[in-house]
Specification:
- Pfam families: 2OG-FeII_Oxy, DIOX_N.
- This protein is an alpha+beta fold.
- It has 11 helices and 16 strands.
- It has one domain: Sandwich (Jelly Rolls), CATH 2.60.120.
- Helix content is 30%, strand content 20%.
- Helix 4 crosses helix 7 and helix 5 packs across helix 7.
- The structure holds N-oxalylglycine and nickel (II) ion.
- The site of N-oxalylglycine has 11 residues, from strand 7, strand 9, strand 13 and strand 14.
- The site of N-oxalylglycine (OGA) has 11 residues, from strand 7, strand 9, strand 13 and strand 14.
């Protein structure tokens, strides 16, 4: 594609750069009172028409009540919950957990602190605005994939790598520092419980994923989806799958998240105190297709109030000696041969970071034609 649109004189790259260098983010654009969005946010008609057909017959993703399994030895009850988690991860790839043990005050404080960060004047946030820390440390930016994606999306994000190398806590903006650290701890506890249930659902030892270091490489992202004056022309986040093992997502009460289920897009209704869990590509591959990594997206926010979400992506920290991963050998047999080939860390990282998040997932690339 030519950098300059010859017929209209539109220089997309120049506009992207100006927006990026202004460090104002979409929150800054929204707060400035604009009534029409810059052209590089406008998505092609195919994407937008799919957004219009987003009514669905299903009302929500499965909700799983974890009360009774935290600190309890009631085995029959645990087996029931394992079944629910397994079924949801197989058929939806997404579920919402309630009564997970994290106090509502911690949840509220986390949302409040991330909102407070984004609500600061953009001159204050500008000192954190950068792109070079995508693979470690702290970074605040608008659209991680701004220069890689075909069209930009209506959100800004504060991102912090919480592990495996310990984060330099002082690098976090003070306004949300303590809350980010506390949230990482709480969400990791929930992730550990969920990973145990997912392991049991596969017939593995409960601690297998922890042992494989799936809790250790964590990226926390605090998204802000501000009011968008033309929500029919753009998206909050483009349809994608998450690359890692699992994602834990906390959202405020402003809706927008949608999950693909069959041919339909299902609205994920915020449940007070609920946490959304979804399987990523890595989990689909190592479970040999048992658990599904499902497409999801966020609508551009038409509400005057910002939508806030805080996600933590859990990834493998230690790659095997030879650097390759694939379906777990314990899950394979002559009846259940591997449906994916092994892949290297480089392939995994390159697939994600070389293009926009709408890139074809690694899953498609490494599928074996059995
Ligand atoms: C993501 C994502 C959804 C949301 O960051 O990968 O899917 O609700 N976010 O912010
Ligand atoms: Ni996602």
């Amino acid at each position: 594609m030519a950098a300059m649109d010859a017929t209209s004189g539109y220089d997309r790259m120049k506009e992207l750069k100006e927006f990026d260098e202004s460090k104002m983010g979409v929150k800054g654009l929204s707060d400035s009172g604009i009534t029409s969005i810059p052209r590089f946010f406008v998505h092609p008609p195919e994407t937008l028409s799919d957004f219009k057909n987003s009514s669905s017959t299903c009302t929500n993703i499965p909700i799983i009540d974890l009360s009774g399994i935290i600190n309890s030895k009631d085995n029959d009850h645990r087996l029931k919950i394992v079944e629910q988690v397994k079924e949801a991860a197989k058929t939806w790839g997404f579920f919402q957990v309630i009564n997970h043990g994290v106090p509502i005050s911690v949840i509220d404080e986390t949302i409040h602190a991330i909102k407070a960060f984004h609500d600061q004047p953009h001159e204050v946030k500008a000192k954190y605005y950068k792109r070079e820390n995508e693979l470690g440390g702290v970074m605040y930016t608008s659209n991680n994939d701004l220069y890689r994606a075909k069209s930009a999306a209506w959100h800004d994000s504060l991102q912090a790598w919480m592990g495996p190398e310990p984060l330099k806590v002082a690098d976090l903006p003070e306004i949300c520092r303590n809350e980010v650290v506390a949230w990482d701890k709480s969400a990791t506890e929930v992730a550990e419980t969920v990973m145990e249930l997912l392991c049991e659902g596969l017939g593995l030892e409960a601690g297998k994923f922890k042992e494989l270091t799936f809790l250790d490489a964590r990226v926390l992202v605090g998204h802000c989806y501000p009011y968008c004056p033309q929500p029919d022309l753009t998206v909050g986040i483009t349809s994608h799958t998450d690359p890692g093992v699992i994602t834990v997502l906390l959202q405020n009460h402003v809706p927008g998240l949608q999950v693909k289920h069959g041919d339909e897009w299902v609205n994920v209704k915020p449940v007070p105190g609920g946490l959304i869990i979804n399987a990523g590509d890595f989990l689909q591959i190592i479970s040999n297709g048992e658990y599904k990594s499902i497409q999801h997206r966020v609508l551009a926010n038409s509400s005057k109030e910002a939508r806030i979400s805080i996600v933590i992506f859990f990834n493998l920290a230690k790659w095997k000696g030879d650097g390759y991963h694939g379906p777990l050998p314990e899950l394979l047999s002559s009846e259940k041969p591997a449906i994916y080939r092994n892949f290297s860390r480089q392939e995994f990282v390159e697939n994600f970071y070389s293009k926009g998040i709408d890139t074809k997932s690694l899953i498609e690339k490494i599928k074996l034609q059995n």
